[in-house]
Amino acid sequence: MSNMLRGTMLLSGASFLSRFLGMIFVIPFFAIVGTTGNALFVYAYTPYSIFISLSTVGIPAAVSKFVSKYNALGDYQIGMRMFRTGGVLMLATGIVAFLVMFLSADLIGAQQIKGEDGPITSQDIAFVIRMVSFALIVIPAMSIVRGFFQGNQSMGPTAISQTIEQIVRVIAILAGSYIIVNYFNGSITLAVGFAAFAALIGALAACLVLFWYWRKRKPFIDKQIAKQTTTHDFRTIDLFKELFRYAGPFVLVGLAIPLYQLVDQFTFEPAMVASGREALWTTEIAVINNLGHKIIIIPMTIATGLSMAMLPALTNAFTQNDQTTYTRLINQALQVIMVFVIPAAAGIAILSDEIFGSLFTLEDIEITGSLMAWYAPVALLFGLITVTAGMLQGVDQQNYAVISLLGGLLVKILFNSQFIHLFGGKGAILGTALAAGIAVCLNLARLKRSLDFSFKQTMKRTMLILIFTGMMCFVIAVLKFAFGFFLPFEEERWATIIMLLIGVSAGGLFYLFLAYKSTLLNHIFNGNIPGLNRLKHKK
């Protein structure tokens, strides 16, 4: 299997497990703090996500590209030098970001919620923002270590540290919030505040993992430096100039989804109240920006892993002007996204009631399930934003990624309130889909123009994927109709869980059967279908 696919599977697996844990923990967390607590959590966590991106200013991903580029040129020392100076920079920006977020918590809370007589107040949001802000001291410096390892095409440290970080964080969230509510009779706000503070606890655990990997890999890195024959004599200021040229676009790429969510958080409550839907706004924002969002982005983990694993290999091929290799990498990356994310998003849409009812509650399922069904296809757009932006960065077109994402964001800002007035919660989803779709189309157009790249092969295989996905959805719909005579899955949670298991198993296996028998998987993965070859060898 190619290094890119191996790295993709490793990072996607870790990212999937991290997302899965992030989704699973919401189930008991929902039982502890309810819809209001989940809405409060996301009102504070979205600004935190933005501060994380701003505090790192795209440096970790840029370091990955920088290290990969100069490793390809045979200069390993310059990558180590960049890692050290970048680490100091990240520590400083993390501390500054912590202070700014902590001190501006009241202002951020007041801008998101108007009035103090609702279920969530601006003081509640400010408290949770202060609690989560402590993680900013650690995470930027930690993330640059991950970027350095990825630049050396070593994906294990990132994958393992991400997994450990999420496991420790989830345990801290659930244990802490449960004890606060049930043993100390603490408020929901206090429980959510501790849940936010758990981001720091998880980050410290990840730091320990990365430190262990560093001690293990350092001798090998020293040997590479000792054997190098090429040296670039850059001043520190020149290093930073090149680094920030790479880094700037990474900031907005990382900010894309949190910024879409932040637009919702500033416009959702006022627009819902103004349109006479004040009784629904906490439920719908909890689905769109937290509960349902955690489910629909699980398919996107493949895109995230693919983007992270692809960038060093794509940068290497582009630096060496290997057109055959970078054309193959781009085609393969797009097709991997399509073959996994399209059926996953369609499956979430058709089983949205069963998914939300099984994991959370059947109460108001006609609202919550419907919202998640509308939101599910946006997972494909989120995945394509991540991957196409990574492609542009890999071929030195990173500035255009900024233009496309800003264009999409502007559309979201201009039309979001109007869409919410017209369609309620679905309007916020429509605004996000329109913004993300514009960004994706602009990125793909730029790739085609700058590389004279043809999407013909990808489009043909996408058509086949859509046909198989349609057949899968038909099978699931028939099963839902048939089992509806025996299972009260619209009323009983146990029946909903059974229907969900039947739908996912039958639909997923049917789709994979079609994709394998048609040789679609074989063509996309160049004969190296993840997991299948190993199974054949065992036989």
From TrEMBL:
InterPro entries, per the entry: PG_synth_SpoVB (IPR024923), Poly_Biosynth_Transport (IPR050833), Polysacc_synth (IPR002797)
Stretches that traverse the bilayer: 20-42, 48-67, 88-105, 125-145, 166-184, 190-214, 243-263, 295-317, 329-352, 372-392, 399-415, 427-445, 465-487, 493-514
Protein's UniProt keywords contain Calcium: no
Compartment(s): Cell membrane
UniProt keyword annotations, A-Z: Cell membrane, Membrane, Transmembrane, Transmembrane helix
Membrane topology: Multi-pass membrane protein
Protein's name according to its UniProt entry: Polysaccharide biosynthesis protein
Source species of the chain: Oceanobacillus jeddahense
Lineage, opening ranks: Bacteria, Bacillati, Bacillota, Bacilli, Bacillales
